[in-house]
Write a structure and sequence with these properties.
The chain has a single domain, classed as Rossmann fold. 25% of the residues lie in helices and 33% in strands. The protein contains 5 helices and 12 strands. It has a 7-stranded mixed β-sheet with strand order 2-1-3-4-12-11-10. It has a 3-stranded mixed β-sheet with strand order 5-6-9. Strands 7-8 form a two-stranded antiparallel sheet. The protein is globular and about 45 Å long. It binds glutamine. The site of glutamine has 11 residues, from α4.
Length: 203
């Protein structure tokens, strides 16, 4: 397979920026809003935005259940920021009725950086991504409080006053970052995910 079909969940948030980045990396991209949009995807991106809103809309549009089922069956996924929250098995500081899609054995703390500063920028080295650190933009971002034994920690940042915090992890074919690579024009994270999707489809 040379050009995988990757869906971008487009219920709310910055789906468009992911479409641009994935297309630049050679993927066929499909916006996902309805259950039928999930058919025959090779991978899916859950964008940044507001995780509580995306959660609610996913239930209203009946896309939650088929997406959770597809993730359980192994659909490769990448989530940035709110997408990290939605792909986490557990969330701290969520709203009372907030649900996630799950699929990664992590506990994330929502709006974690917000308790230090609203937004935060820093350079972060990501294991598996070459050519130097990424410039990472964090906007009301979560971080990973706890990761299960099958989760690989790919990147951490030193947060002033809070110490080193996990901001990128991978479990099998699921990959999440607290930050927004789709906002910087640096395509390395999207290329990493497109490569991951291509190798998952081959195996
Ligand atoms: N704070 C948002 C949430 O809880 C995430 C912010 C973002 O995606 N930039 O979903």
């Amino acid at each position: 397979m040379t050009s995988p079909t990757i869906g971008v969940l487009a219920l709310q948030g910055d789906a468009r920026e992911h479409v641009v980045a994935l297309t630049a990396c050679g993927a066929q991209v499909r916006l996902v809003r309805r259950p039928e949009d999930l058919q025959q995807l090779d991978g899916i991106v859950v964008p940044g935005g507001e995780s509580t809103t995306i959660d609610k809309l996913a239930r209203i549009f009946d896309v939650r259940e088929p997406l959770v089922a597809a993730l359980r069956e192994g659909l490769p996924a990448y989530g940035s920021c709110a997408g990290m929250i939605l792909l986490a098995d557990r969330v701290l500081d969520g709203t009372r009725d907030q649900q996630t899609f799950g699929s990664i054995d992590i506990t994330v703390r929502r709006n974690a950086f917000g308790r230090q500063v609203e937004s935060f920028e820093g350079d972060v080295d990501i294991a598996g991504i070459d050519d130097g650190p990424l410039h990472a933009v964090f906007i009301r971002a979560p971080w990973v409080e706890q990761a299960g034994p099958d989760v690989a920690v790919l990147g951490q940042v030193d947060v002033p006053g809070a110490g080193p915090k996990i901001v990128a992890v991978r479990q099998g074919d699921r990959f999440v970052t607290s930050f927004h690579p789709e906002m910087t024009g640096d395509l390395r994270v999207h290329r990493y995910f497109v490569d991951l999707v291509v190798s998952a489809a081959r195996s």
